[in-house]
Design goal:
The mean pLDDT is about 90. Helices cover about 25% and strands about 30% of the residues. The chain folds into 2 domains: about 110 residues, Roll (CBS-domain), CATH 3.10.580.10; about 220 residues, Spore Coat Polysaccharide Biosynthesis Protein SpsA, Chain A (Alpha-Beta Complex), CATH 3.90.550. The chain has 10 helices and 19 strands.
């Protein structure tokens, strides 16, 4: 990759920075003026702006870090030490004129995976009981949790992401072809524990949580079995705790561009305006959550119930439900054939 691919101008709009972060998948952009370092923009900077309900059509200057960590070329050998001390996954390298001539990325230069400061051990519930009808005919033969993405099943890939952060205690809610799922995981050599939560009937994306009352007594993660989220799970948990949320939803910023000019009409049918190819931004639900254990008391027993029903109940009652936004490319969903093909392509497997 040419370092110019992650350069951005202070006058570019935040919406364009979001798109560039998604395209480059580097989690950082370098704000320059004629190659001179002005600042940096990270996915965290954009997340904080979105949580303020900030306008994405204003200039990058408003959210950039104006005092970024950097090294001069003669000190490049200190990059590893500085990145560990300051917990940075990337650091710009400057020449004597403050021109950016290189960027050191941890995962490309040192260990395969950045070693996060804080490990977590919270339990993880993976919703694996559905029929996966949108993936027919594959799911006529295999249950969705065992659909292979390359050499690993989708569920193994989900679990592997959690184990990177220290999680070792997993609960799989199962129903459709549950014996096949259990036989598969029971035969695996693994460094984590799996418990099965067996539904007697289909209980939706939240109803099976009622079967975990008394089993979970600490903050826990919930993930659908057809998604992959590439994010810092430690940071998501910290955000959840810092904000005292009952539930935190991980959401993805989705941009939709209408490829036509749209027309605005008055009440009597007269054209009062046009907008050429407008763009709209939405936060969409990824199917990845953090919940407090007391939420289990509000899930009805033996009832078809979606986790979003619980979320809407809490919103109506004025209880705290938060969101942790991630970029569009940090979320992969294989719920449909087209999306599954995209996941396989993105993971290059």
């Amino acid at each position: 990759m040419l370092i110019e691919e992650i350069f951005i101008s202070r006058n570019d709009i935040i919406r364009d920075a979001v798109k560039k972060l998604d395209i480059t998948s580097k989690q950082i952009l370098i704000v320059v003026e004629e190659k001179k370092l002005l600042g940096t923009v990270t996915d965290g900077d954009i997340r904080r702006w979105i949580l303020k309900n900030g306008n994405l059509d204003i200039e990058v200057y408003n959210i950039m870090n104006k005092e970024p960590t950097y090294l001069y070329i003669g000190k490049k050998h200190l990059a590893r030490q500085v990145m560990k001390e300051k917990h940075k996954e990337a650091i710009p390298i400057l020449d004597s004129n403050r021109n950016v001539i290189d960027v050191v990325f941890w995962n490309e230069n040192f260990e395969y995976e950045f070693k996060y400061d804080k490990k977590i051990s919270n339990p993880v519930v993976i919703m694996a009981g559905g029929k996966g009808t949108r993936l027919y005919p594959y799911t006529k033969i295999l249950p969705k949790p065992l659909i292979p993405i390359g050499e690993l099943s989708i569920t193994e890939r989900i679990i592997n992401r959690f184990t990177r952060f220290g999680c070792r205690d997993f609960f799989l809610t199962v129903n459709y072809k549950k014996n096949m799922i259990k036989a598969y995981f029971d035969e695996l050599e693994k460094n984590y524990e799996i418990s099965y939560v067996e539904e007697e009937k289909f209980l939706g994306t939240g109803g099976s949580l009622s079967l975990l009352k008394g089993e979970l007594n600490e903050t826990f993660f919930v993930s659908n079995c057809d998604i992959l989220v590439e994010a810092n799970y430690s940071n998501i948990l910290k955000y959840h705790k810092d904000n005292n949320n009952l539930i935190t939803m991980v959401t993805s910023l989705k941009n939709y561009k209408i490829p036509y000019g749209i027309i605005k009409l008055s009440d009597d049918g007269q054209v009062i305006g046009t907008t050429e190819k407008p763009e709209y931004d939405y936060l969409v639900n990824t199917g990845f959550y953090i919940l407090e254990p007391e939420t289990l008391d509000d899930v009805p027993k033996n009832t078809f119930f979606h986790i979003t029903d619980l979320i809407n109940k809490y919103i109506e009652e004025g209880k705290k439900v938060g969101t942790y936004p991630i970029s569009e490319n940090s979320w992969l969903d294989m719920g449909e054939m087209k999306e599954m093909d995209r996941m396989i392509e993105r993971l290059d497997v």
